[in-house]
Amino acid sequence: MDAQGRGRAEDVDPADQWVLNPRTGEYELRLSSSAPRPAVPGPRGRAPHDTDGSSPASPASPADGTTAGRARRTAAPGREVPPQRRRRPAVEEPAPGRRGRRPAKKSKGRKALLWVGGGTAFVVLVAGVGGYAYLKHLEGNVSTTDIGDAGSSSFKKDEAFNILIIGTDKRTGAGNEGYGDAGSAGHADTTILLHVSKDRSNATALSIPRDLIVDVPDCPTTQEDGVKTVVPGQTGIRFNRSLGESGRDAGCTMRTVKEVTGIQPHHFMMADFNAVKTLTTAVDGVDVCVEHAVDDPKSHLKLPAGESKVEGEQALAFVRTRHAFGNEGDLDRIKVQQQFLGSLMRKMSSGDTLTSPTKLVKLAEAATEALTVDSAIGTVGALKDVALELKKVPPKNITFATVPVKDNPAEPTPVTVVVDETKAPQVFDMVRNDISFTEVKQRKKKEAAAVAARLEGEKADPSEVRVRVMNGGAAAGSAQEELQYLQTRAGVTKSENAGNADTELARTTLEYAPDQADQARALAEILGLSGAAMKPGESVTNAQGLPTMTLTLGKDFKGPGIKLDAASAEAPEGVQKSTADQVQCAS
Q1: What is the largest CA-CA distance in the chain?
Q2: What torsion do the CA atoms of 380, 382, 384, 390 make, to the nearest 10 degrees?
Q3: Pairing between strand 509-512 and 547-553?
Q4: CA 221 to CA 445: how far, in whole Å?
Q5: Positive or negative CA dihedral for 462, 464, 465, 466?
Q6: Which of 437, 445, 518, 525 has its CA 20 to 30 A from that of 271?
Q7: Cα 218 from chain centroid?
Q8: How many Å apart are CA 179 and CA 300, to the nearest integer?
Q9: So what's the pLDDT on residue 66?
Q10: In whole angstroms, what is the distance from residue 128 CA to residue 399 CA?
Q11: For residues 581 and 506, is the Cβ–Cβ distance under 8 A?
Q12: How far apart are CA 214 and CA 197, in angstroms?
């Protein structure tokens, strides 16, 4: 491995110098006293060696030559690893350049799945945080961009968050001259909006087609020369042009996503073609599956039917090819990329990867060197916080989906697409309101018990349910939207719009008379009302003189058809989705 810019010397793999600290249970970067001590560089741009090319001199070893002495020599500034107690046998340190035997117990390495398309590449970062100095070195690998108010000023660990993952088609890096567009400033070739739920029970990775026609808003930027300028917006252009052209940065792409979806991206992560090549090589390849043999002369992808393992150039060809699958378009390529990402995530969470310090270090180096992020998460502390929060999401509850689109009606022979207004709004609402596309377990046991108690008994047929709908704090027009859903999709035809309530409510409620309990149970099942939301009380009289329940939509109302007591809901009919734990074959 080269030493340039990484603080390595004499082809010593840093992964071979990670030693288990028995007091903390974590691996730490320690160097043998018999080997030259390479420097661990700080932020990018600081020279890791003296001007004559030699490594800085190592501090003298303690007279006793103990492991504790070596630990003090390599610990983070201001910190020491205390000497080992003599009551236990000393931990034998592996010889330089060799790995010692490791205990069967898994490392406490922090892992984070950071999905990035880079010319349809991506980044999966799995970082072991055994040493502060090494983390600072990783921080120095990462490039940052000041996006101003296009995103958040800091990472909030206690909230739901949205990270915009961008893969560019810029021809940077060795061997990438033949990819992408010649002279491209780096368009948004592959884009995924990653939403992570507030309770970390689920996440949604929403792909945005590069050929989607959008309006790009005006964009304040800080150019490479430090000059601040506003790049004028454009209407009716492809989404991928929201990045790169006229000096547009990732903040412009974030603003465009907000304009199209109504969802605010908080942060971004961006990579180029090198990411997929270096990362798949670092994990010794990723398993893929194709229904039919592939021989694509344009991408140079050659695979037999069935399962294969790809890495490096072949992995990049797999996620970039447009001509090997489906209708040879961008939407089919997105499906293949999502399948590939799921496979890579499964590889990342496997014991073979998590228990290998060599792979962890290689992944950390490859990922951070390929990564550009917004300034708010460009520090070692913020990146660690993001990693720890992403680690909490179960792969089975990570959903891959695509913005619902249709052919552009303005083109005689469509080559671009537009948002499908009949399906996309509900998808956007689900993400914006922190609703999972997969079923997750109800965690509030007391509330679940209350629901069961209130719903116990017979339920009336929906056609016999009489209810008036009022808006008590939901978005304007919500009562009419919910009424339309009840009448046309839920079968509650005896319903009416009663306008605005006198007061605003934080939570949606259903008030009913005792003799309407069967109707209340039926409506509660349709709407997903909790036991606390069902209020036995009085009914009102409708225009026909019949007793009617009152449904008041509160500020927690998430949209028509979205159940209120669940952390999940069904996507609109026709929206294709998959989860990270599913094994699929590209067709």
Answers
A1: 97
A2: -150
A3: antiparallel
A4: 48
A5: positive
A6: 437
A7: 26
A8: 12
A9: 42
A10: 26
A11: no
A12: 27
